[in-house]
Amino acid sequence: MPSRHNRPGRSNRPERSSRSSRDMNWSKLVREKPLGFGRMLRKEADWAVEQQFKKKFQFRRPVEHPPGLPPLESVFTVPAYTVDQLQKDKSDLNAVKNRLNDFEIGEWHQHTRRRSSLFPILQELRHRVRAEFVTQAFAKLYECVAAYELVPGDATEFYSVHLCEAPGAFITGLNHYLRLTRGDIRWQWFANTLNPYYEGNSMGNMITDDRFILETLDRWCFGEDCTGDIMKRENLDAITRRASEFPMVSNL
Predict the structure, then answer these.
(1) Looking at the DSSP assignment, which residues form a beta bridge with residue 160?
(2) Given the DSSP bridges, would you call strands 157-162 and 250-251 parallel, antiparallel or unpaired?
(3) CB 164 within 8 A of CB 196
(4) Pair 122, 134: CB distance under 8 Å
(5) Which of 23, 36, 48, 183 could form a disulfide with 19 if both were Cys (CB 3.0 to 4.6 A apart)?
């Protein structure tokens, strides 16, 4: 009696593996040359990250337009226009956004943090680099000053004014950059935000995290009425007067 493997009508060829040849080659590469494969992956990852940081755009004023603002009488003289598809997209997006009102704010923040692609980067900054007061704003500011020449290369002094700054991560991000790359520069700054110690401010409108503010209170300008509300003209004037004490200012 023919064996099960040699029955008539059945091929004697070995059965094809369920994995494709590409999968087999991939596994072989990992098994035989793990170090080379790891370096290859790292090189590809570095290249992909570099492409993201190369996304820079420069906007220049058209040559035919004279410098300065257009004449006041020419503003809003062209009839308004709308794009039907964009209006529909706007309506759809707002409908989705309105559904967020049904979520508990703490759970929603936890969800967005876990879904953020920046989360592992922030973890690295906190635990490996051990930077001060690391948040998404910290990483954003550091990327800006590292990618663009916001701090002049030949400057020996640097002055900055930070608006709506609480809890202060833009300041700590700038401090980290200056200390790492420009240790000899003389830096002066002050900041503004809604005053977390002013009882008349709404808890829902301000950031109450005062860990950084408390240690640097003399560097904060809360305006004439001490609210920190820059929607009030007198508070804007107070910030302007204090900024005028700096010979040159970068608004961050």
Answers:
(1) 189, 250
(2) parallel
(3) no
(4) yes
(5) 23
pLDDT digits (tens, 9 = 90+) for 11-39: 444 444 444 444 444 444 444 445 566 67
User: Is the Cβ–Cβ distance between 223 and 230 less than 8 Å?
Assistant: yes
Burial 200-222 (b: 16+ CB within 10 A, else e): ebeeeebeeebebbeeeeebbbb
Q: What's the distance, CA 74 to chain centroid? A: 37
Q: Do 185 and 151 contact (CB within 8 A), yes or no? A: yes
Question: Which of the 8 DSSP states describes residue 239?
Answer: H
What's the length of the chain?
252
- Is 187 one of the annotated binding-site residues? yes
Give pTM, 2 decimals. 0.65
Measured CA to CA, the distance from residue 76 to residue 58 in angstroms comes to 26
Which residues, 6 or more positions from 53, have their beta carbon under 8 angstroms from its beta carbon? 143, 147
How far apart are alpha carbons 11 and 215 in whole angstroms? Answer: 81
CA distance 22 to 18: 11
**Rounded Cα–Cα distance for residues 242 and 212 (Å):** 21
Residues 6+ apart with CB under 8 A from 15: none
Phi-psi region of 164 (alpha: psi -120 to 50; beta: other; left: phi over 0): left
CA dihedral 238→241→242→246, nearest 10 degrees, is 160
Consecutive H or E run containing 189: strand 186-191
Phi, psi of 186, deg, nearest 5: -95, 115
Indicate the DSSP class of residue 16. Answer: P
Q: Which token pair is 105?
A: 């704010």
